[in-house]
Design goal:
The chain is mostly helical. The protein contains ten helices and no strands.
Amino acid sequence: MIITNEILFIFIAILITCTIGFKKYVWFISIGYGLSITVVGIMLPILYSNKLSIPYIISSIILIIYGLRLGGYLAYRELKSKSYNTKMKNEISDGSHMTIPLKIMLWLSCAILYILMCSPIIYRFINKSESDLCFIIGLSITVIGIIIESVSDYQKSKSKRKNPNKICTSGLFKIVRCPNYLGELIIWTGVFISGFTTLTKWQWLISIIGYLGIVYIMFSGARRLELRQDRTYQNDDEYKEYIKKTPIILPLIPIYSVKKHKWLVG
């Protein structure tokens, strides 16, 4: 089955969580994003209490930890970081120009994307599939992605506290310019792989759409960041050298810029 009553319950819970974005529209895709994944992790063992083997419990815990860490980090940055808000005030619209119908469309589309992204794990619960090597490998990859994302956020915050006017080029930022986005890609690649041995027919299509959706968003985010950094550091020789030799998001793959790809507007 593609849609079940349980999926509808999860979707409604995500919608409720994402209403935070009506206060500030970027929260649909930031704080609301992290908290929505947390909600999925909480609801799965409740709705499928008859399918609580250790690997399944672990998969829910991983989603909860990921969502709380990301949502908490983004909430702190949005609500407590004066330097971030001062810098982003002129970079990101406050959403005052957005009409209610437009906000509703963004609200619904975000909620749909979040449940599609989690669908490989959700369908494993629905199909009552036994945990297997593919499931375990996928979850392990997801954990690696969470670690990479967490470390990169910490390294960037530490670098900015030390020198707020310089771009971070240390730690994971020596490997790629957007290691947090790389972490996201690894996280959701792991989630996608975890469902390989359980997905059936249309479930494959749903899961692929969710995976491609987050990949598109990460590359779109990398493009926005690149354009913003170009404006900020355009006279910085160190920055110019850094972007010439450091891939933007994928390590060892010589893609150094995506700013010319205007179709990356998500």
